[in-house]
Each structure stands twice: as C-alpha cells, then as structure tokens.
Amino acid sequence: MDRESKYVLLGTxxxxxxxxxxxxxxxITTVVESSQQFLQGINPYAYVAARSASIAELTGxxxxxxxxxxxxxxxxxxxxxxxxxxxxxxxxxxxMGGHGSSLVLVIPQAYELLLALKLxxxxxxxxxxxxxxxxxxxxxxxxxxxxxxxxxxxxxGNFDPVIGFLLLASCxxxxxxxxxxxxxxxxxxxxxxxxxxxxxxxxxxxxxxKQALMFFSGMALGLLPAAYFFCIDPSSFLSVxxxxxxxxxxxxxxxxxxxxxxGVLAQSVIAKIALLGLGASLVIVSYYLLHHxxxxxxxxVALMLTYLVFAPVVxxxxxxxxxxxxxxLPEFNRKLFWLPLLFIAFNSTYMYFAIPLFRSASWTWDxxxxxxxxxxQLLGPLHPQVRCILGVAMGVIxxxxxxxxxxxxxxxQVN
Amino acid sequence: xxxxxxTLPSAMELLGGLFIVLVLSMIVLPFVVARGxxxxxxxxxxxxxxxxxxxxxxxxxxxxxxxxxxxxxxxPPFVSSVSLLEISDQHSQLGGDNLFRDFTVKSTLSNxxxxxxxxxxxxxxxxxxxxxxxxxxxAYRLHHQALLNLSLWRWYISEIDGIWWRDVxxxxxxxxxxxxxxxxxxxxKLLEGTVTFSPEPISISAWKTPExxxxxxxxxxxxxxxxxxxSSGMIQAxxxxxxxxxxxYPALAMASTGFFLVDRRYxxxxxxxxxxxxx
Lengths: 415, 279
Description:
- The structure holds two protein chains of two kinds.
- Helices cover 67% and strands 2% of the residues of chain A.
- Chain A is built from 21 helices and four strands.
- Chain A has helices spanning 3-18, 25-39, 44-59, 73-88, 109-135, 137-145, 147-156, 160-173, 178-187, 198-205, 209-222, 224-232, 234-243, 264-291, 296-310, 323-326, 338-345, 350-353, 355-358, 362-379, 383-406; strands at 95-96, 104-105, 250-251, 313-314.
- Chain B contains two helices and 17 strands.
- By secondary structure, chain B is mostly beta strands.
- Chain B has helices at 11-25, 248-266, and strands at 36-40, 45-49, 53-57, 68-75, 78-94, 97-98, 104-110, 113-119, 124-132, 135-157, 159-160, 163-164, 172-174, 179-186, 189-198, 203-209, 212-230.
- The relative contact order of chain B is 0.14.
- In chain B, helix 1 (11-25) packs antiparallel against helix 2.
- In chain B, a hairpin with a 2-residue loop joins strand 14 (179-186) and strand 15.
- Chain B has a 17-stranded antiparallel beta sheet that branches.
- The interface between A and B is large, with 72 and 57 residues.
C-alpha cells in the first residue's frame, strides 16, 4: 500500500472513532432540522425567514433566527446521509432540543446519527489527505493528524473541511480543466465566505476569455440549486443569505475587542465598520494580486486569510476551510490552528462538545456536570479576556502570514 | 531644482495600515457611554444604560432578570456595576399561575421602556419597565383583579427596614408598608436601596440563607401595581478585576498594534521549508 493510502486510512480511522460521541449541539441541530425539512419538501429558507420575522415581531428588534443560512448544496450533501440513517433506524430523530434550553439525546441512536451526519465531512477529509499527500507527503500526514482539523470534522461536526477540500480541488484542477475548477469553486461557496477567493481566479483568467467562459460555466452549474431556491421564494432566500452580512461581530478576530459592547444598535455600527474594513482589505489584496505574478494557490490563500483577519464574523471553524489549500504553501504558518483551537475552550468550552459521550449514563453525566461547573467557576470569569487575546493574536499573526505569503522586500530564505 | 516624487504605500503597507486603524478604532469604545434602551442576543435580551443604572431584561427563554437593576459608578472607561435588585418571573405568580411558565409572553421596546404582555386563559397583564426621575419603575396593569405575588432578589441583603439578617429567622414577615429600605455590603461599606410599592402590598415577607436575606415577596390584590427601585448610594470605581476592567480592551488593542509595528519595522525572517514544494 502506498503512503498516500496509509495516511488516508490513518486520518479516516481517527475521525471515524471520534465522530459518534461528540457534537456541537446547535450546529448539528441546524443540519438535522434543515435536512429533514428538505426531505419533507419544506423550504428551509422560508422556515428560517418566518422564525426570524417572528422574533423581530415579538421583540421589536431586528434579530434573526440562527438556523440554516447556507447555500442549498449543503442540503444536497447531508440529506442522503440523514435519509439513509432514517431508513435503518427506528428512531428518526434521536437529537432534540438542540436549539432550545433542554437537549434530549436518545442513546445509542444519537451516536449512529452523529456518525452518519459526519460521514460526508470525513470523506472530504479523506480526499484532502490524499490530494495533499500526492503533492507533498508531509502535508498529507500533517492534515491527517492535525488536532484542529480532527476537532472540526469529528468533534464539532461542521462542514468547513468540505469547503477546504473543494477549494483545494479547485486550485489543483485549475490548469487541467477550468470548467471542473469552476464547478468545485462554486460548490465551495456553501458558507459563502469563500467568495473572498474569487478575485484570485479572476486574476488568472483575465487574459483568457475562453477559459474564463469555461470557468464561469462550471460555476453556473454548481449554483443551479441556489438558483432554484431563489426562483421559488426569492425574498426568503435572500433574507436568509443576506443575514450573514448583517450579523454582529463575533469570533476569533480583532473585533473581540468590542465584545463588551452590548446593544443591537451599537453592535450593528461596529459590524458595518468591520464590513467596510473587509471590503477595503479584499480590494487591496486583489489589487496586489493583479499587479504581481503570484500563483493561484498563493492568491486564494492570501485572500482567504485576509477574510479571517478583517471579516466581522470569524467562527473557530473557518480556518478549516483554508488549511487544505494553504498547506501547499511553504510560507503558511502551520501553527496558526492553535489559536482557534484554544478559543473553543474559552467559548463553547470543550465540555459542550462532549455532551453525547457523557450522556451515555447517569454517573457519567454527573461527572460532566462536575467538570463543567468546576471549569465555569475557575475560568469562567476570564473567558471574555482570553477570547479577546486569542482573537487579536489571530489577527496579528495571520496578517503577518499574509505578508509572508505575498512576499516582502528583503525576505531571507532559511533552510 | 530637484523634483519631488511621492512614493505611494505598497498594498501590504496599506493592508497593515487598515489593520492598525481598525484596531485603534476599538479603543474609543469604552469611552462611549451608551444611553437608553437597546437589545442584544439571538432572542431579544433588553439592555438599558445611563449614567447611574444599567438594566438587563432577559429574553423569553429565561425566568430571571425581569428586570435586573444594576447600579453604576465611576467614569468611562473606569465603570463598574453592582447588582441592586432583581425581579424574577420564575418565582412570581398571578392568580396562582407562574408568570414564567404559565403565560405566553411577548416583549417589545415601546417609547421610553419595555412593554411585556403576559396572557393565558385566566388573565392578561401588561408590564412596563421604565427609568424615570432617577428610579426604575416596573408597573403591572392587570385585565382583572387577581392576587399578584412578586419576588425580588438580591445576593445578598444585610438589612431590611432596620432589621439585620442575623437577628431573625426565615421567613421574616414584615410590616405592611408602601416604602422599604434595604442595605447591602460592598467592599466593606453599606449601600442603600429603596423599594416603593403602589398600592401598599397586602403582605411582605423576606427569606434568608446563611449569607443574608436573598428574597423579598410582596403580594398585591389590585389591577394596577407599581414598584419603584432606586438607590441613593454611589459606588466608587473598582480596581481592575478579571470580571470588570473595560481598560483591558483598549490596552490590548494598543499592545497588539505596537507589536505589529515593531515586527514590521524590525521584522522576523520568514522560514521557508525547502522540503515543501510551492504549488
């Protein structure tokens, strides 16, 4: 067996072992809720829009329901696995109340569902490991064993690693097939933040109209599901998608400096400033790419890292979408993942993800309560300040890495 | 005569400059005093701030802080807050029904305050929370007269109307009164708060724990009930603490900006791993 396959098996085995016993309750509930609605013929965008309207009407504030807010390719990815689980299991939904205050898990069916839902992400990771190993064995092994990527895939259960795989595959296939590259890139727009990488592709296509047409054709194909949902209910679709652009600042970024500010109005002002900053930063980096000979991969990574520095919302899992393609670059700071990984401990806390594991018996749940309370009492008061330090550090170090990737005058190569 | 040329900043320098501007712009936030009602959180927690009071009115998924009144002291950014008194829906009843569990609740910002409507098959009541004339006024307007038990909480109260918590058993039945003074300890000092009732409650009682009084229950049999909460005490700004310390955030912003500028000026060299191929 070649080494690439060994690394794939190793990385996949680790992820499969952990997958059933951990989850981010809110995000997994979003996936289950929206996939279930899709399978039943209900428009998830209409549901989310209606819930948001209800909250706004109840409170008089412009607030949103934090449900499904992604492109419909996510539904196409998850629904088959939910359907397959429900085909085999007598309990169609063993995870309930994840969007409320009382989570209910039916053990062991919850473990089976968690494994089923994480399979597409694990498969994407397996493909990433293979592609990276083909390019560079060390990169493949790094990804296979990286605690952060394992955490996001198997413990959190979010699908940012799928976006990472699609971006990687799009870059790798760009020279060979523009149409395929465009299709893969459009699929990576599931969470929309990968739109930041678009200028990198445009820079490479600007003198090749036929190739550009092939690329955009591939993109159009990948966006057909989005076009469908837009056509059947444009207002719901747009209100849910555009919600991403109106969220208050949050996450592993410099705007954690404003985390003590309370109030929707005040937070919306900060978010607008952040959006302007994001727009300006992407324009600056795109301008740089336009006037310098930089590879596609460098350009994509530079723009995606710029997003992580300046975007109003940078959740802990976003870096997982950048790491696969960034590992192709020797300049990428491979230690960057420690910051969002530590951030999780002081945000949701690691104990939150371990709820399914500890719910297996009443004595294990007592242990969970004890550990959770102890952590809360000892370190809970420090959470905001630690998050702020990590968020600002992420901004500073990532910005420095962007400069390294784009090149500096007088850079000295050290072996 | 020599020609002067203007060197435009490079894109990376512009990016760094933008970063510095954004980070430094966060420094002014603690100096901005928020005023008036606002909301935050995914389901609508309401926040009020002025120079003296901060109020928190929790969203409908919580039964406490309905509202929670905090006393503010100091000057931005050296502002600190201390809990004054909290009204709990979770331990309050109307006509025997629990205000948190047994009613459908809708809360909206309205004019100068919050308006909360409670409804079930037995009764409806509209509660308003406003800050008027240096005091917090919580008013209940019932559709028809019923017994209203309201619970007020603080962790902890040392003295109520001159009665020290150690000197009595729990529960303590207080004299009926339309105005009540309470005192609590803060950093070795006693601070004062007042609660006025309109109309006069038909009964008032206080409960205590081994640490002090923590709950006051006032019962009314009327259609219009008003509770006014105020404090005559002023608190001094606390020293920096892990929980407070708004100064922490601008200090971190300046430190990170300084680090970034120093690194750009003197710069560490990028290490290129020769064994990793560029793609």
